[in-house]
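Bug report (template v2)

What were you trying to do?
Predict the complex of my protein with thiamine diphosphate.

What happened?
Run completed; filing so the output is reviewed.

Input:
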Amino acid sequence: MNMPRTAKDKAAKLAPELKLRIHDHMVQARLTEELLIRLVRGGQGYFWIGAPGEEALGVPLGLLIDKGEGPDHDYLHLHYRSSPTVLTMGAQPIDLLRQMRSTATDPYSRGRNFVNHFAIKAWNIVPVTPTIETQYTVGPGTAWVQKRHGGTGISIITGGDAGTAEGDFATCLNWSTRPGHELPVLILIAHNGYGISTRAAETQASPHLHERAGPFGMRHGEVDGNDPEACYFALQAAIDYIRKERKPFCLQANVSRLYGHSSSSGAQLIKDERDCLVEYEARLEKEGLLSKDAAEAVHERWRAHLKEAYQQVLQEPMPDSADIWKHIFAPAQEV
Ligand SMILES: Cc1ncc(C[n+]2csc(CCOP(=O)(O)OP(=O)(O)O)c2C)c(N)n1
């Protein structure tokens, strides 16, 4: 472990307002995902894959991003468990419902891709791909642009533990650390212990995947991904280092997979996993910052918001079959 943390960092505390903001975003993300699961069960979508259990990691990341378009801001190469980050950045839950229903109003893919496949040009969120790990080969490209451009923008790449076994991950480590051409990249591994139905313990020699960055001369570290405050500080330290030094960092966060892999595996609540939201609410209550009633009021506010969004999406049109020829790379050919 070689996290760039000082004794001062360890003693640091988050302001109460920030703690409550983190909690609010965690509730927003969790309830949005739980509604998406209900929609797929009720036939209002084809497939669900998402982030319940990764809110303690994704929300702090969303708060620390320099949001904007172009190389002066951060580029995001995300994966399908990134809704807490994108919602915290200001995305609207209704847009996730739109993509789930594949409506023509889905702003990320116009009804073409499945849920949690974001693409937001104004925020440098490059399209999420269903093929895992391709983001690891694309990320160094934007980081290279940022290194040449100057400034403090960085490229952030997220992915799961199983994906690190693919060659794309090694490609990323290599391209991010060429001597004299080190790149401002944050490599974030969300380790939930599984690749679909395969246990990491059976396929990876070490549970400390971030240590693979060591032989490349890259700084790296590991954090409890169920603790939003630990994640906030670990991410802040890593991001500060990358912004300033223009060099990469690999951070592993150990997270839960609260509803299994996806709708293909049933998307049932798994009760023996740690629940970061339940844990954080208990902690905030103990600290005297959030009573049970106040926490329930936050849930109720987001439930009402989501109910209204759902009613709205039900009224919206589905794509017209002629729209298949829109937003394609080359003009349609006569056949
Ligand atoms: C290139 C490629 N290989 C295989 C798959 C099938 N697949 C989808 S998700 C997944 C598991 C990924 O596990 P991990 O990287 O640990 O992320 P998690 O889903 O657990 O968050 C696999 C193998 C795929 N989508 N793309």
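What did the reviewer find?
The pocket of thiamine diphosphate is lined by residues 81, 130-132, 159-163, 190, 192, 194-196, 261 (CB under 6 Å). Residues 13-316 form a domain with the Rossmann fold fold (CATH 3.40.50.970).
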